[in-house]
Fold each of these.
Amino acid sequence: MNEVALAPEPSHDTQTTGAAFAFSEQDLAGYCAIWFQEYHSWFPILHEPTILETCGQCPGRSDTPVPLVLKAIAAVVVPTQPRPQRVSAAQRQRWLLDLEDDILSAATHDLSLQSLQALLILSIRVFGTGRMAQFYNLMALCKCVSTQLGLRDLVYYHCANYGVPSAIPPRMLFIPFTVVEREEKTRAFWAAEALDSISTLGAAWHLSVPRPEPAATAPCDEETWCFPESVLAAYRFGDAEAPSPFSLFVSLATSELWHVHRFLQQSYDSKAATDTERRQADCDAVYQHLMSWKADFERVLAVNAPPFVDLFSTGYYTDQHPNSILIHCTIHSAVVSLYQRFIVLPDTTSYGGQSWACAADRCIASCESMVALIRTVPDATLESINPYVIFCVFIAARFYAVHARTTGSSTQDKLYLLIYPLTVAAKRWPLARQLKAVLDTAVTESRGEHVGDHPLPVEFYDLQYLLWDIHDALRKWAQAKDQSLTHLESALTA
């Protein structure tokens, strides 16, 4: 973890005005260094040489506006840095919320690539704090801005309809002037699409996931992307022999998960045998398609792409790339989401439902694969991991908890192995802290011990509900439990 210990200080009385913190040049440089060291590897939407140059041009004076992208980086990085002694936790929290509002307001009033990048970066903080409703609204805004900027036309149609009559609807837009601008727009488009896809997997209300487009322009590889503009100008985009970790993640999220989305959004009658058989056959087809992509992915990383052989490993190595971890966790959680509704709990069998042994086996296999993967990841990586991995881990852990409670199977040890990464990630992400509290309570309930006035919502134990459906109930449960603990501590210290 980066040792830079920077934190902004209030420019005047934030207790009464909620005024913004003053960013010094040292602050901005420190935040950018932390961003590119700890976050950029799994969210590479910014061009590092360009951002560092922009950062160096900021004088750090209160009368000079800070670029929106740098503000967004600060919003993500500041909560992880030591807090100045004369600034209370409540003051800094209020400032962070004010900063979020400032970024949102500025982005909605300025239609630009920089606004979209700032919104995408801000979405990391919003997701990591567990504010899912706000995150989904933010994703909708990102996709709207992306559409207005013509990024889909750039990626899908290669600017063929920019400013000229064409067979497809023309757009009065300018072709990007530089290769950096074009690549940044490509990456911003795919980041919005990928986040929207993985964050709504299994949500029946999300019906706008676009059909995959094979001819779309993919992001370039990360080794090329780190070069300055002068070098990139001579690079022929699209000629890379090996896909990048980010482009592989984009492929999974926007192409392969489309089939999972389409399947999970279909309704069926679990009481009708013919409908259930058709549903199971369709589920198997989606599963086999996903496993075929996974096999190709592992083959590419292990055989066909020597620069990236460390991105995937079957042994206990610690140098795995964050996007490789994200890809595997996404696949495993997608399999659990595919099959968990076919595991009928005992109290529903009277309504005609029947269990499907294959469903449980594949869910358990995916959970075990996730355990094996997570155990190889060092704590430093877990702490700064993409917060979506937290959701993936929780999906597997929840399945273990429910399956053990229902069948009496001995999966508690593996459940603990999935609680541990949430413990580490909780140092940075409130979402991990919230979901860990849920799992701790599930373990307590599984022992038959008293959990006080706040038992888990019954929906937690119903696998007909996917995580996206019950998260709001879990969030409210966690808030109620925290309030009770606060009141208890106040009473004890009174």
Amino acid sequence: MTSFRLPPGPGATRRALLLAAAGAAAAAGAAEAQTMPVTVGREGWLFAQWDSVDARIADVQRTLPVISQAISIIKGAGIGVAVLLIPSKTRLYRQYLPPNLRVSADLDRRYGLALAEFRKAGAIVPDLDTVFRDRAKTVQMWFKSDTHWTPMAAEIAAVEMAKAVGPTMPPSSRPGTQVTPLITRQHARGDLVRFLPDNQRGSYDMESYQVRDVVNAGGQNALIADDTADVALIGNSYVEPRYAFQPILSNQLMRPVTLFWKPNNVGPYSSLVQFLNSDTFKQQRPKMIIWTHLELDLETTPTSGSWGQNGMSVDKFLGDVRRGVGA
């Protein structure tokens, strides 16, 4: 296991908003701002409008029991569950919001509600919100113009997850992933820039970031294809290889970790079901599943239109989970 010392860094539904943006013609002034699914904040920080400053607590309270039931089903089948609960960029970087936008009290309590509910269901859930708020004083946790966290935030999260999960796992006969010292790279303009008018896009250049590479002859593809791991990470684009969450987690757990990820519009529900139906799961039933959830998606049940063709009824989702784990 490598001991990491992190350096300081530089200081409607999603689907509906994206469709609105695609159909809107570029125009100047306030009317244009109403159609853009992106908010331009202080110092040029960009925020997705679906990562709202408010929270629909009634919807959250409908969603959390569904996730908790899935956790209970998996645990009942003899598989441990940890939840990678990723905080909201809007809430964490509220100081860069426009002056007319303020984070609501409901948004401030949303993460804590989920944390308590998932832990009550028996999942291991590191409190990344508290950790991130502290580390954000010295480390840039999100890209300025992107919806995603930086690899340094992913590393901090992976270390915290390993601290929480590691003591519950038996020693592994196989080693964890070896990683390099930090490497500085350039991140292309973020995924939110494309929603800006043409005359504003030029204000956004590439951003510097730091990340660790894998010391492995087979590279990331070999890591993802590892079918002997007893820890499975199920997630979205926040845990795709370029953010290096998986290799850092493997390094800190001192054991292989397999990765199964889908774009976030697939959703956490279908992603879980697809993994449970995969050859990877059938050939190597893990001792621990780490299930990724974005805080900003805690208001969306499996039936949400946000998931498109990947949506399903709550009963179907829970039934598919039961069948998948053989419960």
Amino acid sequence: MGDCIRVSDKSSAQKLSLDGYGDDEDGGYNLKPFEALYLMAMNKMSITQDDVLLGFDDLLEFCQEEDPDILSKYLIYRDLRTRGYVAKDGFGFGVDFRVYDRGDFGVRGAQFLVFGLDQGDRERAGKFCDSIDEITKMGKEPVVAVIESRGEIIYYKTNRITFENNKP
């Protein structure tokens, strides 16, 4: 299964594309694991492997072998989709998702770049600030999505801060 799930039906792939799911790559139409988990949970898709129908837990287990953070990514992705946003895979700087403002997918680039953190995770401030600097230079808004212990997602818009040397 790897890091993507192939969509074999061309008409389904076309509909998924229009709705902001998946990408046409590697000679076929592929979904990221978090997209497939979401579509499966919403009963919009079924997945088979070797002619065996997989359940949500089966797919999650397969995906966790490739990406131990897949459950966190899925929870954030599900929350963003439920709120009406289109979210695509991130592209560096530790970003988990590119998020398009409502109605902007296919019209404009992503407005937000989202970092996912589980409650209690630690992130190095220097690395985090460097990422925020790069993102803001691109004209995007950095957002931190914190997954609380109950599975709720809280979003924090961030911006660049500087610490001046304190001299007497």
